[in-house]
Amino acid sequence: MDEAEVLAEQARRLFAGRVEFLKSAPSLKFLPDPDFPELAFAGRSNVGKSSLINAVTGRKAIARASVTPGRTQELNFFEVGEPTKLRLVDMPGYGFAKAPIKIVDAWKRLVRDFLRGRVVLKRTLVLIDSRHGVKDVDRDMMKMLDEAAVGYRLVLTKADKIKASELEAVLAATQAEARKHSAAFPVVHVTSSEKGMGIAELRAAIYEDALGTD
Domain range spanning residue 109? Predict the structure, then answer.
């Protein structure tokens, strides 16, 4: 096995074991102690975040999709491994058009403070819907991450929902966007939770970001 295959197998084994919901944190005082490396998932409402977390962890419903987009305004923590090796953080979705200004402001405060103050946060995954490409709300999130100096990967979701030629164009545009941001990882991941496309590679990237290659 080459290095990439070894990493993919290590990641597969880890996520095939214990994955458990730990807690929800509506504000910073409810955060779990920073005992383990963390990797966060960010994305606008309806981008397929819950489905991707379920696909990466090999679970059917570890992360539940909210009935009303933008309703979940908490940081949700999941522990991976027995004993725990890392945590996944499901961040509240952004870009909710119908939310009152107070809720949007509270969201910004929670997310910004979390990003700036969480020393164990190794990487954030910013999910982009392949059918729509990078939107202004995604750029706002990327700017927030740039300012917090938190490294992130761009992940295209729902890649099975568009034609190959369209996907190629969206991928090229997303790669070009990544190059404009200081904290963005240059490699863009292409995934489909439904078809399993790119999931093993993303899982391996999560493992490497959180735990290194040892």
Answer: 3-211
